[in-house]
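Students often ask why inverse folding is considered easier than folding. One informal answer: many sequences map to the same fold, so there is more than one right answer. In these notes we will look at a single instance of the problem. The structure comes first.
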């Protein structure tokens, strides 16, 4: 990205399950963090989802070689200057970029919210029916569970955050205005940006 996000990220890496098209996105401050994010992703898939990564299709990154050999992961490498050899990943990254740009520009938001927008794009794509999956969602194909979809909101819309009674005085307002910027991955909460 050409702008640094609120959290200080400059890049992202995505990991896509080829069968279900479910996508995981990780944000990076430096490109050399890709390997550590892959190890984090691998641990998540093995521990939480009890799945084993069988094949890793990527560009010719040398640092994956030893880990893949030790874990019994087959490597499929794309040749230099031929990104179309990894078509699923290229299309996914293009769809993320094509979706996040209007989210930012249509709501007239600052570009430093790109991390929140791309995170939201991936979340929504994972719970949205896909033609290639016979109108099932990537989440449903991957986990076998139909995702709950009653909670999505419009990215960038104004929201009000309730301020608990013990966090305010008698004269303070009951809430604070913010901007909806996504979904929390670890709790049933929304991500809200409060300017200033």
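Output (designed amino acids):
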């Amino acid at each position: 990205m050409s702008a640094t996000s609120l959290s200080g990220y400059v890049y992202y890496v995505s990991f896509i399950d080829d069968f279900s098209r479910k996508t995981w996105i990780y944000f990076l401050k430096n490109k050399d963090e890709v390997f550590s994010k892959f190890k984090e992703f691998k641990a998540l898939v093995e521990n939480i989802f009890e799945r084993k990564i069988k094949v890793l299709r990527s560009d010719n990154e040398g640092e994956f070689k030893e880990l893949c050999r030790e874990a019994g992961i087959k490597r499929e490498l794309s040749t230099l200057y031929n990104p179309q050899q990894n078509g699923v990943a290229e299309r996914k990254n293009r769809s993320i970029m094509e979706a996040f740009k209007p989210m930012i520009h249509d709501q007239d938001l600052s570009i430093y919210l790109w991390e929140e927008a791309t995170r939201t794009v991936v979340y929504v794509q994972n719970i949205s029916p896909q033609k290639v999956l016979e109108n099932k969602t990537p989440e449903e194909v991957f986990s076998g569970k139909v995702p709950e979809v009653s909670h999505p909101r419009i990215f960038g819309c104004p929201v009000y955050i309730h301020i608990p009674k013990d966090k305010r005085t008698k004269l303070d307002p009951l809430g604070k205005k913010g901007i909806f910027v996504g979904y929390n991955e670890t709790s049933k909460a929304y991500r809200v940006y409060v300017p200033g």
